[in-house]
Recover the amino acids of this structure.
């Protein structure tokens, strides 16, 4: 079970601090976390797969690795994310938590690269504005934002524009948003085996990991050298 990892002492300080409290081989933990966010596998699937390799790990333990490590990986990835375009397509998709629908705000540029995402309990002007502010803070200001006929998204953008010297151009053209609606499918396909989340904060962390792996697969991580490492190698490098 190789993951092309360097020794534990080369880990990033934040990762090393978390791993001090975890008592399994580093390679096993990182492999499980990557498999969970990369493939349509449940926690019990991973427990069974490890058992076949004579590694006894309870599915709840795998879950704890996921929740502890993914926020650190996302933070590191943000430092190595490639710049995105100035024409944004924004939409939200529904995610079920404890039997109720919550909302994952997402944006891609016209090339299909993920700009940003934000998981919110409500779908209203405040949630939309929080998403736009986060996306602008992380990625710079867009020239154009395309949305559907959502009144809350339009109200949020109007409020943001009211405070800007140079307003963002807003377009409400549904067919131009097909690219982000199609991109939702990669996220929804991964969460389908989970049969709904039980906790909002856990859902937020796991969704961030799925988005992270999705961005790596789309080539959005800066890499040294002429040949980009595999998606798996890029993921593991976030721990170093």
């Amino acid at each position: 079970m190789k993951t092309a990892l360097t020794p534990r002492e080369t880990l990033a300080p934040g990762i090393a601090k978390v791993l001090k409290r975890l008592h399994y081989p580093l390679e096993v933990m990182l492999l499980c976390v990557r498999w969970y966010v990369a493939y349509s596998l449940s926690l019990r699937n991973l427990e069974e797969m490890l058992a076949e390799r004579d590694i006894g790990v309870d599915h709840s333990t795998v879950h704890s690795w996921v929740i502890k490590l993914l926020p650190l990986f996302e933070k590191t990835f943000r430092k190595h994310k490639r710049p995105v375009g100035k024409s944004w397509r924004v939409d939200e998709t529904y995610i079920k938590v404890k039997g109720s629908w919550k909302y994952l705000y997402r944006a891609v540029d016209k090339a299909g690269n993920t700009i940003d995402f934000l998981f919110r309990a409500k779908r209203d002007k405040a949630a939309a504005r929080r998403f736009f502010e986060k996306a602008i803070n992380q990625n710079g200001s867009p020239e154009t934002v395309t949305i559907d006929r959502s009144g809350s998204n339009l109200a949020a953008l109007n409020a943001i524009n009211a405070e800007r010297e140079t307003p963002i151009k807003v377009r409400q053209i549904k067919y131009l948003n097909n690219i982000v609606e199609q991109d939702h499918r990669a996220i929804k396909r991964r969460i389908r085996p989970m049969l709904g989340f039980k906790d909002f904060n856990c859902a937020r962390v796991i969704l961030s990991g799925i988005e992270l792996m999705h961005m790596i697969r789309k080539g959005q991580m800066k890499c040294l050298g002429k040949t980009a490492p595999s998606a798996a190698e890029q993921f593991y490098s976030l721990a170093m």
Observations:
- The chain has two domains: 8-80+221-237, 87-193.
